[in-house]
From TrEMBL:
Keywords: Magnesium, Metal-binding, Molybdenum, Molybdenum cofactor biosynthesis, Transferase. This is Molybdopterin molybdenumtransferase. Its cofactor is Mg(2+). GO terms for biological process: Mo-molybdopterin cofactor biosynthetic process. Residues 207-349 form the MoaB/Mog domain.
Length: 432
């Protein structure tokens, strides 16, 4: 990773490249884990199954369907037995015992039909199914209304409404390719083959450490000068959405030793450390004070909000490799914008997401906006009824409520001092 002096100002692109380089070893050493496949396990831990990705090609241990079965409720027949059947000259066949789903099917004798339910096995000797509505009477035998024979007004084509064994997939075929994201259909076909366990990419394990002597848990009593911590919740949610597992361990102290103690306790359990706050030029910057001596670089990125940033890797107890560290500023909008620009697409790629980047739109501004020419400004906005971008709230990094009511991150690049109403700009959709 490139080392830049503390005073250097990076561009957004340079800092993004540095974060990618920092996390590149995670891409080279992705780890597999076993995932059981059962409705009970999925219902008990639903988050464990969201956005998972196969490690290797998955081969089917069985045919799907596993046996020849009926696509319709109707009658299994030999098509040749009904040659010549016509509406004005129907052919009548006696009935063999009814075959229900889950039953074994005895062979079908020539000149006989067997009532067969959807999904029930096709008896050997039969090669077609005639739907119940195409025979007379158009009903199955019941205790109060026995049916001994039925009339057919047309001969079916061989294979009509028959689902042959292996017509979906054959045993030994690739069921799903390596890298396939798993959702309802994929889990369903896996279960349908009888597989009980699969190998998926282990999620990136992230430790989030919000910092500050002033932060407190939501719901606790605030003393003068204290605030509720929003950064832990917003980053935990963003990381889960990016396909990670998350542990949030706040450091409610400006003492560097306290922060280092948290890292020592949890470093062996995670792949990435994200700290929030304590990275600027104040008198008590706990993250900078604790991590700069360990090799983390702190400086500024030419962006607004989110200028102060830290990046590096530290040696930690019980780890063979160094722990990657990304440090965000403490204002919540700055932290979330920083995550969107620098970490989200990388982490989603590590998770195997098919579309790691935010969808991009280009649309006109509803009103003029000023931007500092030396910085890449990211504003929050939404599309109005005319398809124009309406900015929501101001540029300040504390306006989290405005962010929460936005559906776009609007990009005003370096060099742009003013964009007029109607000027087209780039925006990322954040409402997917």
């Amino acid at each position: 990773m490139e080392r830049r002096p503390l005073s250097a100002v990076r561009s957004v692109e340079e800092h993004r490249a540095a974060v990618e380089a920092l996390l590149e070893p995670l891409a080279r050493s992705r780890v597999a884990e076993a995932l059981p496949v059962s409705p009970a396990a999925m219902a008990a831990a639903p988050d464990r199954y969201r956005a998972r990705v196969l490690v290797d090609d998955l081969r089917s241990p069985s045919d799907l369907p596993p046996f020849d079965n009926s696509q319709m409720d109707g009658y299994a027949v030999r098509a040749a037995d009904l040659t010549g059947a016509a509406p004005d000259a129907p052919l009548r066949l006696p009935l063999a015992p009814q075959i229900n789903a889950g039953d074994a099917a005895p062979p079908l004798a020539p000149g006989v039909a067997a009532a067969v339910m959807t999904g029930a096995p096709i008896p050997s000797g039969a090669d077609a199914v005639v739907p119940i509505e195409h025979v007379e009477p158009p009903r199955f035998s019941t205790a109060g209304a026995p049916v001994d024979e039925v009339a057919f007004a047309a001969a079916p084509h061989p294979e009509a409404f028959v689902r042959r064994a292996g017509s979906d997939v054959r045993a030994g075929d690739v069921l799903l390719a390596a890298g396939t994201p798993l959702a309802a259909a994929q889990y369903g076909v896996i279960a349908g083959t009888g597989l009980r366990e699969i190998a998926v990419l282990r999620r990136t394990r992230v430790l989030v450490v919000p910092t500050g002597h002033e932060i407190r848990e939501p719901g606790s009593r605030l003393e003068p000068g204290q605030i509720y911590d929003s950064n832990g919740a917003l980053l935990a949610s963003a990381l889960l959405d990016a396909g990670c597992t998350v542990a949030v361990k706040p450091c409610r102290s400006d003492d560097a030793e306290r922060l280092l103690a948290i890292l020592t306790e949890h470093a062996a359990e995670v792949d990435l450390l994200i700290t929030v706050g304590g990275v600027s030029a104040g008198a008590r910057e706990v993250v900078r004070d604790a991590l700069a001596p360990l090799g983390v670089q702190f400086g500024s990125v030419a962006m607004q909000p989110g200028g102060p940033q830290g990046i590096g890797a530290i040696a930690a107890a019980d780890r063979d490799e160094r722990l990657p560290v990304v440090s965000f500023p403490g204002n919540p909008v700055s932290a979330l914008v920083s995550f969107e620009l620098f970490l989200r697409p990388i982490l989603r790629r590590l998770a195997g997401a098919a579309r790691p980047e935010r969808p991009v739109v280009h649309a006109p501004l509803a009103a003029a906006v000023d931007s500092p020419a030396a910085k890449h400004q990211i504003r929050r906005g939404r599309l109005d009824d005319d398809g124009a971008i309406e900015l929501v709230g101001g540029a300040s990094s504390h306006l989290l409520h405005s962010y929460a009511n936005s559906s776009l991150l609007v990009h005003l690049p370096v060099g742009l001092e003013r964009a007029g109403a109607g000027d087209r700009v780039e925006a990322w959709r954040i409402d997917d």
